[in-house]
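Listing S7. Sequence submitted for prediction.
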Amino acid sequence: MKHHSLRCALAAFFVLSLAACGKQGAKTPDAAPDAAADKVFFGGAIYTGLADRPTVDAVAVKDGRIAAAGTVEEIDALTGPETERIDLQGAAMYPGFVDAHAHLLGIGMRELTLNLEGVGSAAELVDIAAAAAQETDAGDVIYGRGWIETGWPEGRFPNRTDLDAASTDHPIILERADGHALVANSAAIEKAGVTRETADPDGGRIERGADGEPTGMFIDNAMSLVTALIAAPSEAQKREAYAVGGDVYAAYGWTGLHNVSVDPADVSIMEEESAAGRLNLRVYNAIERSGYEALAAETPRVNNSGRIITRAIKLYADGALGSRGAALTEPYSDMPETNGLLLTSHEEMAPFLKQALIDGVQIQTHAIGDRGNKLVLDWYEEAFNAVPAEERKVANPRWRIEHAQILHTEDIPRFAALGVIASMEPSHAIGDFYFAPARLGDARLDGAYAWRSLLDSGAIIAGGSDAPVERGDPLIEFYAAVARKDLEGASGPDWRPNEKVTRAEALAMLTAANAYASFQEKDLGAIEAGKKADFSIFSKDIMTVPEADILTAKPVMTVVDGDIIFRASE
């Protein structure tokens, strides 16, 4: 099925935006008190996200929406005695940055549990676990998340023997940052009842030593064998985590996020926290498949403020590249005995996808390996061909592939041809390229993190971070997209620098594309009259500063619906 609806619709969105913006040119009389803006922003570079009028001098906001964007003189005409005048003092303002793929509960829990981000060795991991054991009652589970073994001096995954040195009195379960692997100590393995005779579950793998005994590493669906020991967070803990996660993200400069793999029961929690003023971000939910029936009966589900929207289902095709769970067509170059794991099947997916088209439910499917991505494209195409547009609740379903990291080069044009959105995280490339060449070999890198190739083929890329897998900093994501270098400014010979994007494209990936990917392009994604007043304001102009200086910018202010939800102390 050939159609270019995503690209064309987004282009039309820009054209309509320009037309609306152009109507603001005439000088108007001083505003009457009841017509005066609530806030005006001026005094810094203001980027609209619009191709024909990329910058303006000032913006007026009234009742949570943009009243006008134009010259200082035009905005002065909308300023009254009660208008709050906000001088940017040289800071730069952008349409609200939105993370297209994040896990809000995990972001909050990262702040409230054992955070293993940045651990530099297996030895350091053991030291952290041992310190936690000193503060934990014997027998209680110690859980943490965030380690990545890339660059560790040990040159390997951690194992049960490592963690046994931390404690034999506590079950210890430490999850890799990507959420697709974990390491457990002997106490956890024994308490979970896992032995050398335990079979690998479908879509999972228990790593084993030469003696056949579990090493302590559990991949993808095998993780559930030991994570059953971890007490699920209480409702009170979830509420705190959602509020804390929202505060962290607002302080990073995000105005919203697409929240994936959500427990359906958590939707009402977020709605209530939002209503109470404890969760101020804009949240677009993709819930777990167990919530499909209720969502199909009420899609989209929107709370009173419009900040919490639930419209999508999150599915999984394969695992992650770092833990060798991503499904590849050919075996891993550094482990020829495996080509990854498929977490679902055509028989399971085919009828479900057809029904989702009929019901108007958006589908977001995790796929990382080239085989995983090819299969998801095949399954989507089969469903699109089986259900004509007139039988769908939403003619253009805007289905997405989450991550789309490793692609066969011949599959790249299929995204635009099928109208499938590539939801990708730029920071994955600058981290994964430390091990991706070893996992894949050189030839497969041609389709790895292929942002430039996808954009040139006509695809839309929704940019995200996958936090807490990554840190979740919008400036890192922007930098990674335009530099394709690590945070120290270095890149390897295999990093395919030709796949980086322009700054205007990176801005669109984090703003306009994400508005479109969540069916919100009429309200979000650009600074123009009529749209909601969502702004991300940073201390430096990331569209013009030297590449390395992007990372030294700081969030100054985050605005949602005209409300300042974060303001830097300085």
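Caption to Listing S7: primary sequence and predicted structure tokens for the chain studied. The radius of gyration is 24 Å. The mean pLDDT is 93.
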